TrEMBL record:
Gene3D superfamilies: Rhodopsin 7-helix transmembrane proteins (1.20.1070.10). It comes from Myodes glareolus (Bank vole). Residues 37-288, 373-621 form the G-protein coupled receptors family 1 profile domain. The chain crosses the membrane at residues 25-48, 60-84, 96-117, 137-158, 178-201, 222-240, 360-382, 394-417, 423-451, 471-496, 516-538, 559-577, 604-629. GO terms for biological process: inflammatory response; phospholipase C-activating G protein-coupled receptor signaling pathway; positive regulation of cytosolic calcium ion concentration. It is a multi-pass membrane protein. It is found in: Cell membrane. InterPro entries: Formyl_rcpt-rel (IPR000826), GPCR_Rhodpsn (IPR000276), GPCR_Rhodpsn_7TM (IPR017452), Leukotriene_B4_rcpt (IPR003981), Leukotriene_B4_typ-2_rcpt (IPR003982). GO terms for cellular component: plasma membrane. This is G-protein coupled receptors family 1 profile domain-containing protein. Its main location: membrane.
């Protein structure tokens, strides 16, 4: 097709530097979460061959992860497109890549529909459960899903065309073709599947409530998951398909009318809605972790198979067990349109400008989320919590450390936006020193929390004796003193330099030896040793709980997994760059070569990413709060910390179970949780 119908509006993902940076950030974050997460799902389920046969839901989830992984593997191509502002694979690659995206989208939504239908049958027709484990049935269903996806994705290849060797663009020969394609895509990939999911889960909830299963543990989990499924489906895909319908109607409307202008607005919004939809490829693994609950510490890396072993389609399962259903997933779809429309060469900018826009976006997000979130946590503990447990004191100090580092974000945003440091030497050293103190304080607080939790499980009676507020205050004072001392090199090795007529607040080392020392010191004390302590503590907790068959709360299990995951995700990339630069300094390699420049640019991005860790905790508390958020409102943080505290007053409030069991080993379950997250930013 050489002549294409052009929808109203001419804005594209390449039109503005900010949109390119935001699109790159969305893609990288989705890949960071989705690739290892879906890889873990495939690793867990592909080799699992239970004697009774693999549950149908497990097989469907395996293929769902494969579909997610397929589209996420294309992330480097889209990132290269955004950074180079030109499509890198030519006409054939243009059609092939977007055909794979559409194939993955349709496969995901069909698999989600089957999962919801299987959930409904497991509750309403439990006698069909043994048949749902039939390998022949699974093969036929999967064959039908992939064949249907292959057919439905054909228009994505037919209507793709490379415009001017720059943009892989939708190319419809007429307005009628455009309206038909966009409407058909929304009908088959959203309206019909969404109706199926809503119908299935509506029937499921009605049956579970009618049987009075909703008040139990499984009923609560099922209800929460159903809400998450419907919410995620609507949140991630309604904006995208709303734009589809808007442009389909605008294509058939008069070119100068109101609908045509609305279609132009939709074209401008398409890039953002598509990037939001891309996150659907990384949501499922996170949801599995939340669903696993107490299986995660007991089963370790095999928690996913244990989740399906206890599912509702096992042989001989009772009707009530059918109500617990193994599917804990969110409706899945895939990205279809990543770069809609052409752009002019005048809209381009330098790669360096685009690279610096990503830290600006990340810092802005961290500031917008973390400042009000951590302020709310501090207010909740200081104003609404009369009896503060040791855990509450640790969380309070963690929120204060987060707030301290977030208050420096406007200075760094000003520097990135203006390209020069205007706050003199004292501002340079003070801002980075605050960041360094906050980083060390946060890491040490996380370590103390993990050690505290380990002591509560291993030595519960000793834990009760040492977990007093007096000792807690001494420990907190020591943490801050040590943090102030460990961050001292930041002041020594920071100065303001003039580079190319601009002022830069940067690291200034008298020799390569000093550079290597500082980087290694920061990584060892600020990551390696604390991370080893956290891993060792929770490994010991998991081993003891499994050996003694403690029953841990699902809330605590989720927090344990997320603490370790966030610790590594936010800080490992930064400290890997530290190690690489330290090695280059010790080897005496050139500090001005291309590798050094790329490492310097990567450091900007990774520091901004680490800033996000300062905004994660409030989100984590909201997720961990679960039903407390609905029942307690703004007081949910207080209720959460009161429920997980382990001081004498807390133990008395929740001590009925222990008293009834005559002080058996179940009592340590009331030990302190790890209700916090790694936070702060590097120096």
């Amino acid at each position: 097709m050489s002549v294409c119908y052009r929808p109203p509006g001419n804005e594209t993902l390449l039109s503005w530097k900010a949109s390119r940076a935001t699109g790159t950030a969305f893609l990288l974050l989705a890949a960071l979460l989705g690739l290892p997460g879906n890889g873990f799902v495939v690793w867990s389920l592909a080799g699992w061959r239970p004697t009774a046969g693999r549950p149908l839901a497990a097989t469907l989830v395996l293929h769902l992860a494969l579909a997610d992984g397929a589209v996420l593997l294309l992330t480097p191509l889209f990132v290269a497109f955004l950074s180079g502002q030109a499509w890198p694979l030519g006409q054939v690659g243009c059609k092939a890549v977007y055909y794979v995206c559409a194939l993955s989208m349709y496969a995901s939504v069909l698999l989600t529909g089957l999962l919801s239908l299987q959930r409904c049958l497991a509750v309403t027709r439990p006698f069909l459960a043994p048949r749902l484990r039939s390998p022949a049935l699974a093969r036929r269903l999967l064959l039908g899903v992939w064949l249907a996806a292959l057919v439905l994705a054909v228009p994505a290849a037919v209507y793709r065309h490379l415009w001017g060797d720059r943009v892989c663009q939708l190319c419809h020969p007429s307005a009628v073709h455009a309206a038909a394609h966009l409407s058909l895509e929304t009908l088959t990939a959203f309206v019909l599947p969404f109706g199926t999911v809503l119908s299935c889960y509506g029937v499921t909830l009605a049956r579970l409530r009618g049987a009075r299963w909703g008040s139990g543990r499984h009923g609560t989990r099922v209800g929460r998951l159903v809400s998450a499924i419907v919410l995620a489906f609507a949140l991630l895909w309604t904006p995208y398909h709303a734009v589809n319908l808007l442009q389909a109607v605008a294509a058939l409307a008069p070119p100068e009318g109101l609908l045509a202008r609305l279609g132009g607005a939709g074209q401008a919004a398409r890039a953002g809605t598509t990037a939001l939809a891309f996150f659907s490829s990384s949501v499922n693994p996170v949801l599995y972790v939340f669903t696993a609950g107490d299986l995660l510490p007991r089963a370790g890396p095999r928690f996913l198979t244990r989740l399906f072993e206890g599912s509702g389609d096992t042989r001989g399962g009772s009707r009530s067990r059918e109500g617990t259903m193994e599917l804990r997933t969110t409706p899945r779809l895939k990205v279809l349109l990543m770069a809609p429309n052409t752009t002019s060469p005048a809209a381009s900018s330098s790669p360096g400008g685009m690279s610096l826009s990503l830290p600006i976006v990340l810092l802005s997000v961290a500031l917008a989320v973390g400042l009000p979130g951590n302020s709310f946590v501090v207010w909740s503990i200081l104003k609404r919590m009369q009896k503060r447990s040791v855990t509450a004191l640790l969380v309070l100090n963690l929120a204060l450390a987060d707030l301290a580092v977030l208050l420096t974000a406007p200075f760094f945003l000003h520097f990135l936006a203006q390209g020069t440091w205007t706050f003199r030497m004292i501002g340079c050293r003070l801002c980075h020193y605050v960041c360094g103190v906050s980083m060390y304080a946060s890491v040490l607080l996380i370590t103390i929390m993990s050690l505290d939790r380990s002591l509560a499980v291993a030595k519960p009676f000793v834990s009760q004796k040492v977990r007093t507020k007096t000792i807690a205050r001494w420990v907190l004072a020591s943490i801050w003193v040590v943090s102030f001392l460990l961050a001292t090199p930041v002041i020594v090795y920071r100065s303001v330099k003039q580079l190319n007529r601009t002022l830069v607040c940067q690291q200034d080392y008298p020799s390569d030896g000093h550079r290597a020392f500082h980087l290694l010191f920061e990584t060892i004390t600020g990551f390696l040793l604390p991370f080893l302590a956290v891993v060792a503590s929770y490994s010991d907790i998991g081993r003891r709980l499994q050996a003694r068959r403690f029953r841990r709360s699902r809330r605590t299990g989720r927090l344990v997994a997320l603490i370790i995951l966030a610790f590594a995700a936010f800080w490992l990339p930064y400290h890997l760059v530290n190690l690489v630069e330290a090695g280059r300094a010790l080897a005496g390699w050139d500090k001005t070569d291309s590798v050094a420049k790329h490492l310097k640019m990567a450091r900007y991005v990774l520091i901004a990413l680490a800033f996000l860790s300062s905004s994660v905790n409030p989100v984590l508390y909201a997720c961990a709060g679960g039903g407390l958020l609905r029942s307690a409102g703004v007081g949910f943080v207080v209720k959460l910390l009161e429920a997980t505290g382990s001081e004498v007053y807390s133990t008395r409030r929740g001590g009925t179970l222990c008293q009834s069991q005559k002080a058996t080993l179940a009592c340590p379950e009331q030990g302190p949780p790890e209700a916090s997250m790694t936070s702060s930013t590097p120096s």
